[in-house]
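Practice problem. Given the sequence and the SMILES for pyridoxal-5'-phosphate, write out the predicted structure.
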Amino acid sequence: MQIPFVDLNAQYLPIDAEVREAVGDVLSSRVFIHGDVVKAFEQEAAAYLGVKHAIGVANGSDALLIALLALGVGPGDEVITVPHTYIATPEAIYRTGAKLVFCDVEPTGWNMDPEQLKKLITPKTKCILPVHIFGQCAEIEKIRAVAGNIPILGDAAQAWGSSRNGKKCGALCDIETFSFYPTKTLGAAGDGGMVVTSNDELAAIVRALRVHGESRRYYNQYHGMNSRLDAIQAAILRIKLRKVDAWNTERAKIADYYRSRFEGTGFALGKVIPGNVHVWHQCVGMTENRDALQKHLTDKGVGCGVYYPVPQHLQICYQDLGYKKGDYPVAESISDKSLALPCWPEMTQDMRQYVADSVVEFYK
Ligand SMILES: *Cc1c(COP(=O)(O)O)cnc(C)c1O
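Answer key:
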């Protein structure tokens, strides 16, 4: 059996007619950027997340940069983030000119370790940037306890729909950002992103920054950029927003099933931290012989992936920061030992079973 790692076709087919109609409406309206459709999506997103402001931008990477700029981060400041994330997270910090400081992740949920964070905060720390990795919220209340009044920016790119202690991811930090890259749990048909906050002042700056720092048309108060959300993407996202909970529930069912099948094997599926609803953007487990398992699964036709093969502190582009192998042992062990399995909502029972059988067979 051939099982792709992700299959956007399966997600798209059932909504094809609805999407075409909504896209057709946008084309007829000739309002391609911002406008009523984007506003409607922003309002629906804010209501879903339980935040005051949801502000559409061009992608999740811009969302991070804009949020950092809105917090006033710049040269001379320090921002603390994790090495176990996608490059977009440290890159946004680097782009502001602030000093990039890494904090290792904890070995259970693979999110920012509040104990290590304690030792990294200095008078120059301007912002703390945890990531809700793989669709599971970081333990924000523990990070908050350490951070005091330092603003926390959450990178929620992978975590639309997840929650912690009854609060939606997006409403956990001072300001949070999402990506609508097509494979994320809420994905557009192209690029898209969002900055969310319940802070009126920050929201006003974010709204200005996405259109060149304009406070009103052609009056530019800040050094901004061009990062707008297309109406076509917003129209599609409105449709998918109504389905995303059902999709996420299905992802969690697959993860539960895998967990039950992998008991007693050498493949330890990621744990759910108490209080969290995990949306399994990636369904990742750890094993001692990852490369051999990956080859075995690939030979069996099961798509799988490594997130991420290089922890960010060891990327070539950050060589000048002077980090070395051994500095962040938890993040490094995830790079060495983790493997992500197919976990998309439309997988049939046969497919789920085939993936699980193939993993179990490897350990026999
Ligand atoms: C996808 C992703 C981003 C970037 O989002 P884009 O929309 O691709 O720019 C940022 N951070 C994390 C953790 C991501 O997974």
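Check your answer against the key. Residues 244-262 form the longest helix (19 residues).
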